[in-house]
TrEMBL record:
<keyword id="KW-0597">Phosphoprotein</keyword>
<dbReference type="GO" id="GO:0032259">
    <property type="term" value="P:methylation"/>
</dbReference>
<keyword id="KW-0949">S-adenosyl-L-methionine</keyword>
<dbReference type="GO" id="GO:0008757">
    <property type="term" value="F:S-adenosylmethionine-dependent methyltransferase activity"/>
</dbReference>
<dbReference type="Pfam" id="PF05724">
    <property type="entry name" value="TPMT"/>
</dbReference>
<dbReference type="InterPro" id="IPR008854">
    <property type="entry name" value="TPMT"/>
</dbReference>
<dbReference type="InterPro" id="IPR029063">
    <property type="entry name" value="SAM-dependent_MTases_sf"/>
</dbReference>
<keyword id="KW-0808">Transferase</keyword>
<protein>
    <submittedName>
        <fullName>Thiopurine S-methyltransferase</fullName>
    </submittedName>
</protein>
<keyword id="KW-0489">Methyltransferase</keyword>
């Protein structure tokens, strides 16, 4: 997903993606159909990164991910697109669920997964690390057609004999920035409800942190304070200037989650180099 942010003195020119949503998908109810239409017309290249997130790979490979004894860690990637991060996590030992609103998108993701799980590209691993993750330790991949906010897909994430206890990892990269700002509070509420108890983590690769908050999306501009306000502050996360967004970091922790780390990753996509941050969250201590 790209962002057209003008340099000083230049006027803003809406991208093809922004024009698509401004034309006939401006309401909350029309968001899913807007993304599905792009998939159906084979315009998913407007946001496709072509590989999993280097920042997430480095985080996952830095230490074993905690999970209850006797099973693999369970992960969710909402708005998973073609499934790059879903497959990468499975190659690292997670049972992963990729959620996408478009049936066409899910078909593309399943085809990609079938290819990569058999013979994965080196870009799924940190340099020299591929042999550390043998084939017999790979997790399972499940792609689901569904709307994150409707939750009718959740029952499909529970195997026979299990009780759903939340995910051990939820990953968000360009899902939040693709949503209308008015949907952010519900995004945060949903993350809190789907995340398992500590030590389960929500990992957000914050993007785009460089885009003017007043400019239209998708992608909509985000800031550290927006993530904090929605996840920890219990707010709406809707701000139109940097100063007010920054002030949200001073609000009391009334939201469902607490932030445990925020780092600038040594590797990320070219679109976010120099600005991307990884923030890591967990359910608040009781």
């Amino acid at each position: 997903m790209t962002s057209s942010t003008p340099k000083p003195g230049e006027s803003f020119v809406p991208t093809k993606l922004i024009k698509h949503f401004q034309a006939s998908h401006t309401t909350r109810d029309a968001q899913s159909s807007g993304w599905s239409a792009l998939w159906d017309s084979q315009q998913n290249d407007l946001w496709d990164r072509g590989k999993p997130a280097p920042a997430l790979i480095d985080l996952i490979e830095s230490a074993p991910w905690p999970a209850p004894e006797g099973r693999r860690p369970k992960a969710l990637v909402p708005g998973c697109g073609k499934g790059y991060d879903v497959v990468m996590l499975a190659l690292h030992g997670f049972d992963v669920y990729g959620l996408e609103v478009s049936p066409t998108g899910v078909e593309a993701a399943r085809a990609y997964a079938a290819e990569q799980l058999d013979a994965p590209f080196a870009y799924n691993y940190g340099e020299g690390n591929q042999e550390k993750y043998p084939k017999d330790q790979r997790g399972e991949v499940t792609f689901l057609v569904g709307d994150f906010f409707k939750r009718d897909w959740e029952s499909e994430c529970v195997r026979e004999g299990e009780t759903f206890g939340g995910f051990d990892l939820i990953y968000d990269y360009t899902f939040l920035c693709a949503l209308l700002p008015e949907m952010r509070q519900d995004w945060g509420r949903g993350m809190g409800e789907l995340l398992g108890p500590q030590p389960a983590k929500l990992v957000c690769l914050e993007f785009p942190l460089y885009k003017d908050l007043k400019l239209p999306g998708p992608p909509w501009g985000l800031r550290e304070g927006i993530y904090y306000d929605v996840l920890a502050g219990g707010g709406t996360g809707v701000f139109d200037n940097d100063e007010v967004a920054q002030s949200a970091l001073q609000r009391p922790n009334k939201g469902p989650l607490e932030r445990v780390a925020r780092i600038r990753p040594p590797r990320t996509y070219p679109q976010g180099e120099g600005t991307d941050h990884l923030s890591i969250w967990q359910l608040k201590s009781r």
